[in-house]
Amino acid sequence: MALPRPHRFDVYIAVGGLLGGLLLVGIGLGTRPSSDPITLFDGPWPVLVPLTVLAGCELLRRAAPRAALLIATAAICADLVTQGSLATVLMFTDVVYAAVLYGPLASARRIQWITGLLTVAGTLVPFAVWRVPEALLIGVVVGVVAYAPAATGWIVRDHRDAAEAARLRAEQTALLAEMDRAQAVTAERARMARELHDMVANHLSAIAIHSTAALSIDEPATSRQALTVIRENSVAGLAEMRRLIGILRDAGGDTEPAASPTLDGLTALVDGARANGLDVRLDTDDHGRVPAPVELAAYRIVQESLTNALKHACPGRVTVALGRRDGLLDIRVTSPYGHRDGPRAPGSGAGLAGMRERAALLGGTFRAGPQDVLWVVHATLPVSEGESA
Predict the structure, then answer these.
(1) pTM of whole model > 0.70?
(2) Can you tell me the distance from the alpha carbon of 330 to that of 320, in angstroms, rounded to the nearest whole number?
(3) Confidence grade of residue 389 (pLDDT, cut at 50, 70, 90)
(4) Which residue spans within 293-341 are E strands per DSSP?
(5) Would you call 349 helix, strand, or coil by DSSP?
(6) Residue 345 three-state SS
(7) Which DSSP string corresponds to 217-228?
(8) What is the Cα–Cα distance from 201 to 179, expressed in whole angstroms?
(9) CB neighbour class for 111 (10 Å; exposed up to 12, middle 13-18, buried from 19)
(10) Between 263 and 99, whose confidence is greater?
(11) How many helices (DSSP H) and strands (DSSP E) are in the chain?
């Protein structure tokens, strides 16, 4: 198995440590005199062996920190029986630091405990044997060479892990914010699509039906009446489009957009449906004040139901009934159902989907379908007392 390639910075450390050690050997500077009883190998040249081994361990400080520490420990023990080199000691402390910083978490903890116990033992055992204060300096040296770099590596590792965790949290926060933004954009597009459909579809359906009638009936009076209705719906449709564009342009600006439709406008909505040829009866109870979202949804449901009745219903009475009961705003629109003669406007099903979405967004219910000879649109929207007060 090939050894991992050393990091470029580790190569610089190894070369610098080796050259520094060679310089110290050249000028004859060691950590112990040759007369020291522990020095078994006299002279400057035995120092080169642990020095070279430690320089090689520096190459592995990041790529294989545990192996580097084991070899470096053997090398520093060998350095103890020579005159010693300050460069060898410094490189050993760096290997200990790197083993804690770059090694596995379990190894980093064990190194902390081992170096701490060695420091305590190096302090107490010599003092217990020699009974002189100077013996305590051995523990200080062990602590500086072994425990201090291990503790420093642990502190740096803890800060590095904390910074990495903060970076990951920031990335997750940014990802969640982007997801929220995408969902908000999607929801806003769906809302604007519903608004655009509900505001314009009614007028365009009336235009399509009356223009078809004007083209199919060769009577000047009827054609003039149809053209009048077409013009009225065109003007109303343009007004609704301008209102929607005003909302989009003026949101957050100094100019307030036009007010949203309310249930008080149902009478005008029904009158417009009658002008388009529908026989509509409006039946409303005293529903009191309701929240603006519920009011807008109810208005749009009635508007879209009348649009569908204009496009698809058979001749007959269309009934719009609104009432409030048990904390719910009940909306029911019925129209004759069956085969229809005469001009029809095409439908895409977007109106039913929009009404269902409006009810679901408010936690209400929606149902539309035939019942005997009627087509029934029935929606219930929750109205809480706190919101309506």
Answers:
(1) no
(2) 11
(3) very low
(4) 317-325, 328-336
(5) coil
(6) coil
(7) ---HHHHHHHHH
(8) 32
(9) buried
(10) 99
(11) 12, 5
